[in-house]
Design a protein that fits this description.
This protein has helices spanning 10-14, 138-144, 171-179, 205-220, 246-262, 287-311, 329-335, 359-362, 395-408, 437-460, 486-493, and strands spanning 4-5, 28-29, 41-44, 49-56, 62-65, 70-78, 81-88, 97-105, 108-116, 148-150, 184-187, 195-197, 202-203, 224-228, 270-273, 320-323, 349-355, 416-421, 463-467. By secondary structure, the protein is of the alpha/beta class. Strand 15, helix 6 (287-311) and strand 16 (320-323) form a beta-alpha-beta unit.
């Protein structure tokens, strides 16, 4: 239950510090229901939650936190009393953590410490007995995967599995993915925020256990699973320059050694992907700079391969996925002329790119972001004759991009996944334009056509498509398809 926290400042003991420039008013946190209680801290259990505090002051105070897992919001201001809420996200780490809220009024400031307990470790499940190998190579997986799914904004969320608004992954949800017609699941995952020993890059065993549990949900449904190191705060993805950095190579090896060890008991239906969207080079940059950036990226990908293979066991023949620079099809086609060396030989590697073209249609949210209008009508038969029609990236361009991956890799025996693709024009209507009901139906039909075209073209060119979803299409609690989005599921599976 929410309650007000009584906070006594040093000034209450030493003469009541001023909260304005004229030293005429006191700043303090009060709770009428606990008039004699004084404290300078707020505590949460590992599940997180919200607590309120009030500041009485003649000037408008501000309150900010120093930690991503703490959110501070102003609730109200009336008669010198300013009320704020402090929300802590779930703590998936086994260790307790502490952050601070800084309150500033005029020239004065004070802090409230926010303490949260760690998750209670479950009994150590140990390392499960290895599942028997199935003799699966990357080409076998390519032939078997029909449609892939992303569990987005969940295990990769910074601050805890539920920090970005989705519930924890459960077995019903994974079963729902299968029931909808998908037979492969990509699991974006964060690791950096779960490191409990920065010197040795040691991952909290509780988090390894939780990821192992989710992977188990997927494989228990007889689906393929792809587990990666996602954006992860950008520690690697945003630091790929013209030469690799030894400390990042070492960290990449350390993390993947632990991941591969903990999850090594699964057979080849679990794939590992070394990164997500590595910011190596620039599609519009110089050729020489892009070549150097690609070499740096290759060092990090080689560290990934060496770490997984070094664990041995089922990891010796597990399919590994390496990413194109920026996961850009154009960058892959122009610069990805070499893959990491695989000690296990040929046939155990895939290449990954992503697809969000044309960006004004798929991901742009508001007019003017890139000096253009948000587009709502994709496909030659859906144009409405105005500035909301797409002007590039339509059917022939989409197919041409996928054919680049087919010619560069698939035809040479190297499977390709499109690890993410999606288009979200419906979500952006209210920010830009008012459409009639009939126009909205056209927007939906156009979106359905975009998904249908991309998935069809991907399969025709031998590319494996994994649709990006953050909870829009399938209910995360029940596994039921959201009926208003059934048409998108139908387009994907068709």
């Amino acid at each position: 239950m929410k309650k007000f926290i009584l906070f006594s400042l040093w000034g209450l003991v030493m003469g009541l510090a001023s909260c304005n420039d004229d030293d005429t008013e006191n700043i303090y946190v009060q709770d009428a229901s606990l008039s004699n209680l004084t404290t300078n801290s707020i505590s949460f259990d590992s599940n997180g939650g919200t607590e309120n505090f009030s500041v009485t002051c003649t000037v408008m105070p501000t309150a900010v936190s120093d930690s991503e897992w703490i959110t501070v919001d102003r609730i109200s201001s009336s008669n010198k009393v300013h009320t704020f809420s402090v929300t802590a996200s779930e703590n998936s780490l086994s260790e307790d953590r502490t952050g601070y809220v800084k309150i500033t009024a005029g020239k004065n400031s004070e802090t409230i410490s926010v303490v949260q307990t760690g998750s209670v470790l479950s009994p150590d499940p140990g390392i499960q007995e290895s599942e028997p190998l199935l003799g699966i190579k990357a080409k076998d997986i390519e032939a078997d995967i029909k449609a892939g799914w992303n569990i987005g904004n969940t295990l990769e969320a910074i601050g805890g599995e539920s920090a970005w608004g989705n519930p924890k992954i459960n077995e019903e949800y994974v079963a729902g993915i299968k029931a909808a017609g998908f037979n492969a699941v990509r699991i974006p995952c964060s690791w950096d925020s779960y490191i409990i020993d920065k010197t040795n890059n040691t991952i909290d065993p509780k988090w390894l256990d939780r990821v192992n549990e989710v992977v188990g949900y997927v494989l228990d449904q007889d689906l393929y699973a792809i587990l990666n190191i996602h954006w992860d705060g950008g520690w690697l993805e945003n630091n790929i320059e013209f030469a690799s950095k030894p400390e990042l190579v070492d960290k990449q090896k350390a993390l993947w050694t632990q991941i591969a060890t903990r999850l090594g008991h699964y057979n080849e239906k679990l794939l590992f992907a070394g990164l997500n969207e590595p910011n190596a080079g620039n599609e519009w940059g110089s050729k020489n700079d892009n070549i150097l950036a690609m070499k740096a990226l290759l060092d990090y990908e080689q560290a990934f391969v060496d770490a997984v293979r070094g664990v041995g066991g089922n990891n010796s023949t597990r399919t590994l996925v390496v990413q194109a620079p920026h996961t850009s099809i154009n960058m892959a086609y122009d610069y990805m002329d070499e893959l990491p060396n695989d000690p296990s030989g040929d046939g155990y590697m895939m290449v990954e790119a992503h697809f969000y073209d044309p960006s004004e249609y798929t991901i742009m949210e508001e007019d003017g972001a890139w000096s253009t209008y948000v587009k709502f009508f994709w496909g030659k038969d859906f144009h409405q004759g105005g500035n909301r029609d797409c002007t590039w990236g339509e059917e022939s361009s989409m197919l041409s991009q996928l054919q680049k991956m087919q010619n560069k890799f698939v035809n040479k025996g190297i499977p390709v996944i499109i690890g993410e693709y999606g288009a979200y024009p419906e979500e952006h209507i209210s920010k830009n334009v008012t459409f009639s009901d009939s126009e909205i139906e056209i927007v939906k039909a156009s979106r359905e056509y975009w998904y249908q075209c991309f998935t069809k073209y991907a399969r025709e060119t031998g590319v494996l498509p994994f649709v990006w979803d953050t909870g829009e299409l399938i209910n995360r609690n029940t596994g039921e398809v959201n009926q208003s989005k059934q048409y998108i599921i139908d387009a994907l599976i068709k």
